[in-house]
Each structure stands twice: as C-alpha cells, then as structure tokens.
Amino acid sequence: MLSIDFILKNKQRVEESASKKGYKINVSKLIEIDDKRKQLIQKVQRLRAELKKTSQKGIAESLRELAKQKRGKIQQMEASLAEVEAEWKNLLYEIPNLSADDVKPGADASENEILRKYKDPTKFDFKPKDHLELGKELDIIDVERAAKISGTRFGYIKNEAVALEFALVQLAFQTLLKEKFQPVIPPVLIKKDITEGLGYWQAGGNEDYYLVREPGENLEFYLVGTAEHSLVPMHKDETFEKKDLPKRYVGFSTSFRREAGSYGRDTRGIFRVHQFDKVEMVSFTTDENDSKEHDYLLSLEEKLFQALDIPYQVVKMCTGDLGFPIARKYDIEAWIPSQNKYREVTSTSTTTDFQARRLNIKYRDGEQKKYTHILNGTAFAVGRTIIAILENYQQKDGLVKIPKVLQPLTGFSEIRRK
Q1: Which residues contact 124 (CB under 8 A, 6 or more apart)?
Q2: Residue 224: inside a domain
Q3: Which of 387, 390, 352 is nearest to 371 (CA)?
Q4: Fewer Cβ neighbours under 10 Å: the N or C end of the chain?
Q5: Model confidence, pTM
Q6: Structure confidence by residue, pLDDT tens digits, 323-377
Q7: What CATH number should be reported for the domain holding residue 332?
Q8: Measured distance CA(352)–CA(288) in Å, rounded
C-alpha cells in the first residue's frame, strides 16, 4: 500500500497514476475517513488520560461513578474507531501502487515498448507444426486424457517432456545458485489474509485464483499462482539488516490459475492452463537499489533464454498494462513459429515498497527502519518454455532437437517418434 501521509500530500498524483493504470479510486473519501479516524483516536486518548486520573488510589467516592461512565464511553468510542479503521483500511487498500517515473503512459498492451530482440525469428523450409501436434506425435503431451480426468486446460506431460521439464528446473537452479540465490520449495496454499498483503487480489483479481476451504473449519486458503505468492510474505513482520540486502530466493512450485478472464483464448495445448510449474525469483532490497536490482533480474532471465538459444524480445509494459501492486514490469516474449509471433514466457516486476508496507517487511538503516523494496521475476515458466523449445527446435522429419545446454541434463539430444 501507499503511505497515508504520501497520499495526503500527493492526492492529484495518486489519482492520476491510478487512472493511467485503469483504476478508479476515491481519495477524497479516504481523506474524509482519515480525518474522522484521527479525531476518534484523539478523543479516545483524551478519555483514557482522564480515566487514569479518576482511577488513582485515594480518589473521592463521588468520582468513582464518573470513572465508570468514562470506561463505558471509551468502549463505545473504541467500537466506533474499529469500524472507521476497517473502512479506512479498505479504502487505502483499493489504491494501486504508483507507476515508476520511467514507465511510458499507455492504455493497454498495444502501447508497450519493445526494448530489444535476441536473434531473428526461426525460419523453416517447411510449414512448422504447433506444440500440441508435435506433442501428440512424439507422445509427450496428452490433453485429451487430461480433459477426461480434470476438464479443459489441463495436460499430461509425458516421457521425454518430463526429463525436459526437470532439466529446465535444474538449469535454472544451477544458474541462480551460482548467483547466491537461496533455494526454496514453498507452500502452495496461503491464508486468505496474506493475499491482501500481496495486492494481486485487489480490483477483482481474486477471480483468477482458486479458493480452498478446509472442511469443518472456518479456514480459507488460496492456491498460489506462482511461487512468488508464498515467497514474498515469508518475511512478514520481520526486519532485515541493511548489510544483508539484497536477499534473493529462487523457488520452484506447481502453480494454479483459473484464467477467468481468458475464456476463448489460447485454448489449444498447454500454453494457458490451470496448473503449471514455475521457477521464480524474489528479491528483497533497499529503495536506492531497486532499479539496479530490477535490471539484474531481467539480465538473468535473458541469460537463461540465451542459453536455450531461443529468439525473444524484451518488452516494457506501459501504465495501462501494469498490475495493481506493480511499479514497473518487463516481459520476455519468445518466438512461437506456429503462431508467427512472440508470446510471453517470463516477466519481472518491482512492487517498490508497496507489498512491504502491507506485510510489514522492513530493513534497519542505521537508526532508521525503512520498508524493503520487493521484486520478482520468472526464471522459467516450464510449460511455455517447453512449447518454445518444441516449436523452435523441430525438424522437417518430425523430430525435435534438444538445446545443447540441456543435453547433459536430459541425457538425450533429440526426441523422435516412438
């Protein structure tokens, strides 16, 4: 969340930034409730001070009844204050993070910036097959049987594709462990209140995630959409020492998304599915190192895709294509020959101190405590990376070669028809 003091001093800027992101907010209402909240806090504090005086030893009997009345009044005011603070928090949580100053204004994805490209798009002297056709022929992807068991947008990953998945995961971990990232396999269920701290569930975003209720218990959890969702709140209510930052993690998890807003899009194959595996990076750093750290995470994503030697482009999101808690975001889009276009395979974002304020994650800088800046980035979204490999490395005779960097990890150099 944004600081209430910052909002009060920068009302117009906050409103304009939210509008550019496509969110309607009510800062005036928040200011009104904040004033009411402050007045109630002052009244409660004053009554408590008065009660303390009338509750001292040796107080006159005539004042005991007055003290009793004050206690009752304090309880009433505290109840009113709790209601006002709940409304205040809700309004505060409806305000999205500011876009970074270097983010281009734009309405939607059509106005994103292409920063650079790696390699020319793959060309063939034959009509390339898409990943599902290849997957069926090579007996490594089965969505038809998955549909019988789980419904649409699920898939069985089989045979050599399984080895390919684990090779990608191993490559990501080998690369990032050399960079001193700490490896983690995090939980895939998170408490409902934790989702408020992440900020992705605001403005209807919770519709894209699966809610799980524990039978017989009044407990609700969400299934994570990425390892980031359980890695970021790992340090909730904790304080780092500045010398220990940046603190970097690499996590692997199965991820779940309803894809509620994508019906009718990418329904073929495993490009947009409800369950998928990801290797994710998360970094906690200082405010002054935010941009540097963001560039660093992007460079690691590029390093991994260059190791696979897959053509891609780096895209910087405009304001209208940024999520609720995100200040700046880059995507890597890999070339998908069957579609004759680039498609997103990774992203990296900074949420500045937005999530840290909600989750109370700080660092000690001398005598001061400051909120950390939190960044995230995809190492590999495994399913989409497999798609990019299958389509870019397919051969005319139907076999698929394996990128050289993965061959020692898979134990084979190509996948042929059975």
Answers
A1: 337, 394, 396
A2: yes
A3: 352
A4: C
A5: 0.93
A6: 999 999 999 999 999 999 999 999 999 999 999 999 999 999 999 999 999 999 9
A7: 3.30.930.10
A8: 10
